[in-house]
Amino acid sequence: MEDALIQLLITWGYHGMFISAFVAGSVLPFASEVVLAGLMALDLNPIGLLVTATLGNTLGGMTCYYIGHLGKIVWIEKYLHIKREKLEKTQRFLQGKGSFMAFFAFVPILGSAITVTLGLMRGNPWITCFSMMLGKALRYYLLIQALLAMA
Fold first, then answer.
1. Distance (Å, rounded) from C-alpha 30 to C-alpha 144?
2. Around 129, how many Cα atoms within 13 Å sit in the side-chain half-sphere?
């Protein structure tokens, strides 16, 4: 099923890249890297893919921030599968570091906890979004460079 979805998203080009990056940036597990690699193999513009993937992944991450901002721990545990203990541990880690820590939102598993916790802590949404976008852009840039080097 996931393979068919990945193939469908690849046929959608940049739109498919945006959707896959959005889903991967939210709380749903999805490998937008596979879609990126497929689109790179089709010779789509790397800069266009970088922009599309970064925007989609950042918006997906900001949905996590917004869910955290709602402050419903029960929802976070039920729908995002992030346990209260992990949120509390992440909150202790983020204390005093601020919204710039959203840069690390690209880190698997930990990234969702960071963005949700920043929402819970009412971190500055503009700094959170900008920092997150930088981290995600760097990650996709490095991935694109690796794919170009392998070609």
1. 18
2. 10
* Containing structural domain, residue 129: 2-150
Write the DSSP string, 27-71: TS---HHHHHHHHHHTT--HHHHHHHHHHHHHHHHHHHHHHHHHT
Question: Closest Cα partner for 64 from 129, 139, 134, 140?
Answer: 129
**This prediction's pTM:** 0.91
Confidence of residue 56 (pLDDT cuts 50, 70, 90): very high
Number of compact structural domains in the chain: 1
In 3D, which of 50, 48, 45 has the Cα closest to residue 33?
50
45 token code pair:
């513009």
How far is CA 82 from its chain centroid? 16
